[in-house]
Amino acid sequence: MSQSFQPIDASAVPRFAGLPTFMRLPHVTDPAEVDIALFGVPWDAGTTNRAGARHGPREIRNQSSFLRAVHHVSRIAPYELCRVADLGDAPVNPFDLQDSLAKITGFVESVVAAGGLPLAAGGDHLCSLPILRAVARDRPVGLVHFDAHSDTNDSYFGDNRYTHGTPFRRAVEEGLVDPKRTIQIGIRGSIYGAEDMAFAEGSGMRVVYIEEYFMLGTEKVVEEIRRVAGDGPTYVSFDVDGLDPAFAPGTGTPEIGGYGTHEAQVMLRGLQGLDLVGGDVVEVAPPFDPSGNTALVGATLMFEILCVLADTFARRQ
Amino acid sequence: MSQSFQPIDASAVPRFAGLPTFMRLPHVTDPAEVDIALFGVPWDAGTTNRAGARHGPREIRNQSSFLRAVHHVSRIAPYELCRVADLGDAPVNPFDLQDSLAKITGFVESVVAAGGLPLAAGGDHLCSLPILRAVARDRPVGLVHFDAHSDTNDSYFGDNRYTHGTPFRRAVEEGLVDPKRTIQIGIRGSIYGAEDMAFAEGSGMRVVYIEEYFMLGTEKVVEEIRRVAGDGPTYVSFDVDGLDPAFAPGTGTPEIGGYGTHEAQVMLRGLQGLDLVGGDVVEVAPPFDPSGNTALVGATLMFEILCVLADTFARRQ
Amino acid sequence: MSQSFQPIDASAVPRFAGLPTFMRLPHVTDPAEVDIALFGVPWDAGTTNRAGARHGPREIRNQSSFLRAVHHVSRIAPYELCRVADLGDAPVNPFDLQDSLAKITGFVESVVAAGGLPLAAGGDHLCSLPILRAVARDRPVGLVHFDAHSDTNDSYFGDNRYTHGTPFRRAVEEGLVDPKRTIQIGIRGSIYGAEDMAFAEGSGMRVVYIEEYFMLGTEKVVEEIRRVAGDGPTYVSFDVDGLDPAFAPGTGTPEIGGYGTHEAQVMLRGLQGLDLVGGDVVEVAPPFDPSGNTALVGATLMFEILCVLADTFARRQ
Amino acid sequence: MSQSFQPIDASAVPRFAGLPTFMRLPHVTDPAEVDIALFGVPWDAGTTNRAGARHGPREIRNQSSFLRAVHHVSRIAPYELCRVADLGDAPVNPFDLQDSLAKITGFVESVVAAGGLPLAAGGDHLCSLPILRAVARDRPVGLVHFDAHSDTNDSYFGDNRYTHGTPFRRAVEEGLVDPKRTIQIGIRGSIYGAEDMAFAEGSGMRVVYIEEYFMLGTEKVVEEIRRVAGDGPTYVSFDVDGLDPAFAPGTGTPEIGGYGTHEAQVMLRGLQGLDLVGGDVVEVAPPFDPSGNTALVGATLMFEILCVLADTFARRQ
Amino acid sequence: MSQSFQPIDASAVPRFAGLPTFMRLPHVTDPAEVDIALFGVPWDAGTTNRAGARHGPREIRNQSSFLRAVHHVSRIAPYELCRVADLGDAPVNPFDLQDSLAKITGFVESVVAAGGLPLAAGGDHLCSLPILRAVARDRPVGLVHFDAHSDTNDSYFGDNRYTHGTPFRRAVEEGLVDPKRTIQIGIRGSIYGAEDMAFAEGSGMRVVYIEEYFMLGTEKVVEEIRRVAGDGPTYVSFDVDGLDPAFAPGTGTPEIGGYGTHEAQVMLRGLQGLDLVGGDVVEVAPPFDPSGNTALVGATLMFEILCVLADTFARRQ
Amino acid sequence: MSQSFQPIDASAVPRFAGLPTFMRLPHVTDPAEVDIALFGVPWDAGTTNRAGARHGPREIRNQSSFLRAVHHVSRIAPYELCRVADLGDAPVNPFDLQDSLAKITGFVESVVAAGGLPLAAGGDHLCSLPILRAVARDRPVGLVHFDAHSDTNDSYFGDNRYTHGTPFRRAVEEGLVDPKRTIQIGIRGSIYGAEDMAFAEGSGMRVVYIEEYFMLGTEKVVEEIRRVAGDGPTYVSFDVDGLDPAFAPGTGTPEIGGYGTHEAQVMLRGLQGLDLVGGDVVEVAPPFDPSGNTALVGATLMFEILCVLADTFARRQ
After folding, report:
1. Using CB atoms within 10 A as the burial measure, which of A16, B5, B57, B214 is most buried?
2. How far apart are alpha carbons C172 and D16 in whole angstroms?
3. C-alpha angle E93/E98/E101, rounded to 5°?
4. Cα–Cα distance, C247 to A244 (Å, whole number)
5. How close is the nearest chain E Cα to the Cα of B99, in Å?
6. First-last CA distance in chain B
7. How many Å apart are CA D254 and CA D243, to the nearest integer?
8. For the whole prediction, is pTM greater than 0.95?
9. Subunits touching A (CB < 8 Å, at least 3 pairs)?
């Protein structure tokens, strides 16, 4: 892999210096040059409550300067295994939701067409839908979904069917996600009514409510993730509100009582060996994140996903 | 005016106690009971950059607890002159811009139909358009417009013609605002190009750029406001980014180099005697306002406008 | 329960819209109309160090807009079981501690007299005393007390016996609380001296120090809570400083090394089936809470208590 | 003046190092050793709205490390002219207002008895009353009072006559302040009613409302201050809410539309030559001051007052 | 100028999207491609008190997304007049001050050698020295210096002669700056001693203390700037602490009582027509800037300087 | 121990009052008067990324006012066992790293020479090196090191061998620390390369990576600490970034996925009985700590270490 991109050397150039690209990698504009495409989706038009995730990609990039080159547990060295770069932000249209969905899908299609794996920094959770439309174009994929919310509602504010509370219902309806190969981890919080989870559970998704999560323990949940996802192509989506807001306060719909970052890291590392086709980290909302820690969490979880994606990529070669 | 509403007595109930209504006035739901209707428009779907003004009404209400009952300069006692109350928030639909415009207009129409004067807390500046559709239904009104931006652009992100950068162009096109009786005060900041101000100036608006403002001095600007507005019905719209961001940092599109709060107060007091038909204070964005001062500014400027509206109302009786 | 109050529908009116009442419930002023009375006590005159809890009720109300209608674990739907509303704030006098105590007791007595169960948002922990004077007027009650501090000191700054460090000593002395049916969970932090816990332990309170808490595990602590409280009438008081300050930094007397929110939720859910007579969540101090998370924690824990109170109420009918 | 105290040398010990005493001066406990006593009054029990000024002395001390030794305009070198030191904080009792008043007076009396001039960092504005009881024990003094509020109300929350809204009415009633030699500068903000200023104006105080202030200009206001204060003994009291909250957001009762810091400095420098007997800077409330700038303002204004006090002291020798 | 670079079009790509380069311009690495080189100096090793300016370039870039393409007063369109781009950050060595100075000078020399004009975002004020070493290599330049401090001290903490308090003394000693063609505007704040300004005044610099600034008025100060700078090559250096901290709190050494942003803009615009050779905006310290406004001020003042530099460049062709 | 120093009595003087010394103890300047010397090292010149730890000692002192006199678990009463006081800050030179190292060592030597045990509040982690040079002058000591990072790198930015990433490599090389008696707890985070840990592991240090930490559980890690440290003289160094940033966001190099404060407290209590020779708590960076919680954590962990040091001291007598 002689042409692989390398992060700026932090022992030569201080971490606070230079343009804040993801992981201090080069900014590349041609998808054909990369195997794993890091990109932002600066868009929160799907938000039903507090906006701000539109600023997520910039601040995640900023905090990602803290990351180094090699995973300290798995020893995966992603920049040795494949070509990873910052592809910039997907195009969006703040005033036209459907146009934005189309533009994001188009952007990701260019990555997929070039043989690359997409790894996005949201944006709100509606971002996952247009990405899935690109990566699951040819067949449904499994879904490993970390979140406090199922995001399988039907509509909001009348008949608005495309919000950050509905992406995975749409994805199932559109045949992008196989609900039988879908697992949701960390679901919790007061609900509108008894039927809230009817679609998720009715369609066959494996829902690990936070109570079951704590009862099983992280290790067993990892086993369950691997069992559900199986051998097929699988997408991973991490909503930072799956974490307890002590760890990730800067998000639009915080729910107390979640897991911590160590647990999240263990679960993401547990994806190694699955047939991963892409991923995202969403709902980092910097205006509600006075310490900047939520964006650091977002950046670090992106690195965790990047490592298992790189491992997937390398094994495929 | 025996039935007028009174704020909670702060020498009996501390200012930090109780539900935060505007000015600690009663929450009233029937427009027929009020002469001046204070209400919020929790909506920022017109925002082209940083959102957050959707949270403006709540935080302005919260800070409005600082306000007392009588204006210390004009000695106007609005709650003695007419019935003023908090009508709650106008209905909005975060996912449907046109539906929101219609709903806001409907809400304000109910106020106008009952003979009341509307005074809104935004929300982003697109809010002014649906309010004007209600108050200027029968004839164009004059406009006293405090802002760093002219908000007379044509469209954004393709052909999106309804944003917080376009309301007053739409209002002129729709015959709601008489550009000859319109004055904009504080316009400044880098521009897209030489033609940015073509519509405003071409349509006959009187544009007081910040440089002219400082050259003339506040007193002469007040004279100019009164000259332009004249005797006809007039609406007042205050975008807090007209102020320097030192005074109002919590806003979506700050531009350095504006006027201060004292100057703003003097200009608003200078409206006394005009034939006012309503007003708004917009673009308070609490997520960018760590000290809360911007919302306090918003609340106090609402009180300034309230006093001149009450005086208008009383003189009409 | 045809007349029960319902929260504003968040799929019709966005969560950031409208007046921030507790849980977006109606504001009701007649205690006779409610079965469970949510109210604030905007008062921190009992504070010995950092004030700010006076602002707690407003910010808890604000953040409580995040809450939905049904408990996702117990499936308790409080608004179906009984009439729940926001009764506003108890009257207080910032300059007269004894007068405040009397006024708060009077307010709660009106709730109790009407057959309602009080659920308060403090205010500092001294608030619990006047509430207990109302709910325990006829017989002592058991107490489930979550806190980092025992709050059973005798006096401060000379002979001041009514502070947020003394309420439960006073409550025992006044016969309001049965120390044998009292359990304190999470006690920790450096102490003034060996005798600090003499009253609590000498009077027969069951003190679960944080070390024992972690040793036993949450499940066993729940059993111990139920054992101590028994079948008699029981009050629940949650001081947010029982939580680790990572979860609740916005409080007056933070002590590191506490439990998390999930654990707190599990313990509160464990109260289901007890004979509950009321409760409070206290010591949320918004000026020390830059992210707003502490108020969200306070609001969510109020919802947890509300659910078990509603279940108690329904079982009694 | 061989024994005078000197600040820590900032070119040897960095400003962020060391215990934060006022102006980095020695902490001295014997009033007999100092000519000008800097001290804190960590007390806000007189506050009717937002507390926090109790934390003022610590944060003013912290920010006062920015100050150097010589005034750059008047060239007054206070530490060359007299012995200036940090006497620590006056004793207070958070639970007993009258006891606190007595303790503060006692503390200041020890300074006065030793021939020293007191210069206090509040604390809320009620602090001025017990200080005046010490410095004006023998005869009424003139008062130069910078503030947005007259602080001459009669009572709050029933018959509570000692609050931060009443000190100067009490001071006149007690014969401590000569209203004919009193000037208030910057008064503004909505009022409770037409009679709010009756006491101030009726007693003969010269009230420079903010409108008159801006009309006259700072220079003429200085002349007016000197005319009113005259030759007699005079006390200076600076409430930071006299400043516009853009300059001093961290205060309990902000009122928009005030003067700036440069103007405040010019006015304080204008006191040189008066027969000053002491002063205070009050109402710095750090919990509402995210940038710390308000405390820096407080510290710098203390230095301005210190210089004119030192000049007074030196001229008397 | 067919090859000139253009900012990203904000009506197509939202301002919060994309990598945050200065003014949303392309990132270019070859100095030969640009006429005006925008770059950062992420370095605060010269700071004697609060560090943080090392983070200035990133946050100024972030906030510079607010800027548009054309100056609204002078109508200068810099991107039409010459090639402007973001050259990234100058190399620095946080652990070796002299090495950093050499590296920064080398970086700027490459710009100058290619015929470009440098415009830097600091970093602390010591940054100006290595830049001057490059732009004034062949002959001394005049200096227009906005600041609260003269920065002409000799040494700190022993014999450390290279700090942010000494750059212009060094620059004069090294023959880089002609003190007779140097003007400092806004000098203020307590001083170490009477001799603090001896070098500045003794060397012939024109020092406009803040008091004289307010007395003369901005217009006359502009005349004085032009008179002092004259026709020779001139460098402009803007320390944001020249502004009042109400306008720019996020800086290392704030001094209350400065000018505002409008005044700063007027003065910078007044430089049009001078023979400018480069400039900088320094001492933006984001960790002390909770609202982000200081970085916005820094970005906007950079745009002001950019416009007069572009005008200079165009006139030279 | 009749002459021991006592903290200010918080039931007489409120915690927010008075000069903020460590634990509200007297400020003492003669090392001969103390058995355990609390002191600050206001210095972060070893920082490779975000500075700010220079402000740590002040803010830790400020927050340490929360601490009381007796440990609630071990019942150690340090102020009864020995003479503990605040010795102020070690001298530092922000512009000369080697001079600072020498000065800090000199300061600590004076403590050690007087028979005292040093307990420092940093400052960045490079502080530990000069302290070790004093306490380990005569023989190497064991090291119990809590941290996310091993801090055994060789150099940064060229050949800079003294940074906060290198102190323990230098300490081993200088014979100050016995790597065989060294244990590092909590190591984690992405790494530069496979060889990052070569020195630590190659020299014989016991590295408890965070993964092993969570697998073993705190109790077993305590056993391992005691086994490794053994009977010899041992130093304890606590970098707050060993904690998860949810608990300690205000630090220069946060790494998600760490332990919590309760676990840290249990581990520090587990040191009781070791032959302790001193300790430090480092890397508290207040500019990145909006809630102040990190400094409270720092202060409380200092108290934990103080208790085991006092116990060590008492047992030696």
Report:
1. B57
2. 48
3. 75
4. 9
5. 24
6. 11
7. 9
8. yes
9. B, C, E, F
Instruction: Please report residues of E whose CB lies closer than 8 A to that of D69.
Output: 190-193
Q: How far is E156 from chain F (nearest CA, A)?
A: 8
Residue of D114, D162, D117, D121 whose CA lies nearest to D135: D117
Predicted pLDDT of residue D3: 67
Q: Provide, as residue numbers in chain B, all residues whose Cβ is less than 8 Å from the Cβ of E66.
A: 49, 253-255
**Average confidence score pLDDT of chain A:** 96
Which secondary-structure segment (H or E) carries D144?
strand D141-146
From first to last of its 317 residues, chain D has per-residue pLDDT tens of 446 899 998 888 999 999 999 999 999 999 999 999 999 999 999 999 999 999 999 999 999 999 999 999 999 999 999 999 999 999 999 999 999 999 999 999 999 999 999 999 999 999 999 999 999 999 999 999 999 999 999 998 888 999 999 999 999 999 999 999 999 999 999 998 878 899 999 999 999 999 999 999 999 999 999 999 999 999 999 999 999 999 999 999 999 999 999 999 999 999 999 999 999 999 999 999 999 999 999 999 999 999 999 999 999 98
E95 touches chain A (CB under 8 A): no
Side-chain-side CA neighbours of residue C182 (13 Å) = 28
For residue D296, the chain E residue with the least C-alpha distance is E256
Q: Which of F51, F96, F158 sits opposite E158 (nearest CB)?
A: F96
How far is the CA of C167 from the CAs of B169, B184, C45, C252, in angstroms?
62, 59, 13, 16
- Rounded to a whole number, what is the distance in Å from the CA of C146 to chain F's nearest CA? 17
Return the bridge partners of E237, or none: E145, E280
Does F194 sit within 8 Å of A75, measured CB to CB? yes
Strand ordering across the sheet containing F36-41: F84-89, F36-41, F117-122, F275-282, F233-239, F141-146, F177-187, F206-209
Interface confidence, given as ipTM, is 0.96
- Residue A69 contacts F where some CB pair is shorter than 8 Å: yes
**Residue F149 CA neighbour count, 13 Å, CB half:** 29
Helix-, strand-, coil-residue percentages of chain C, each rounded to 5: 40, 20, 40
Judged by CB atoms closer than 8 Å, whether chains meet at C96 and D160 is answered as yes
Asked if A254 and C70 come within 8 Å (Cβ–Cβ), the reply is: no
Nearest chain F CA: its distance from C44 CA (Å)? 15
Name residue C86's amino acid. D
How far apart CA B264 and CA B231 sit, in angstroms, is 22
Q: Rg for chain F (alpha carbons), in Å?
A: 18
Q: What SS3 class is residue C248?
A: coil
- Check if C269 contacts F (Cβ < 8 Å): no
- Name the closest residue on chain B to residue E80, using Cα atoms: B193
Joined together, the tokens standing for residue B277 give 């038909």
E70 token code pair: 């054309």
pLDDT of residue D2: 44
Tokens of B284: 């308070």
Instruction: Please name the amino acid found at residue D231.
Output: D
Task: Confirm or reject contact between C191 and chain A (CB < 8 A).
Answer: no
Cβ-count burial F204-223 (b if 16+ within 10 Å, e if not): ebbbbbbbebbeeebeebbe
Question: For position C140, what pLDDT does the model report?
Answer: 98
**Could you tell me the residue ranges of all domains in chain E?**
22-316
The answer to whether residue C102 neighbours chain D at the CB level (below 8 Å) is no
DSSP calls for C139-180: S-EEEEEE-SS------BTTTB--STTSHHHHHHHTTSEEEE
The CATH superfamily label for domain A22-316 reads Ureohydrolase domain (3.40.800.10)
- Interface check C16 vs F, CB under 8 A: no
Residue of chain C whose alpha carbon sits nearest to that of F77: C193
Contacts of F217 in chain C (CB under 8 A): none
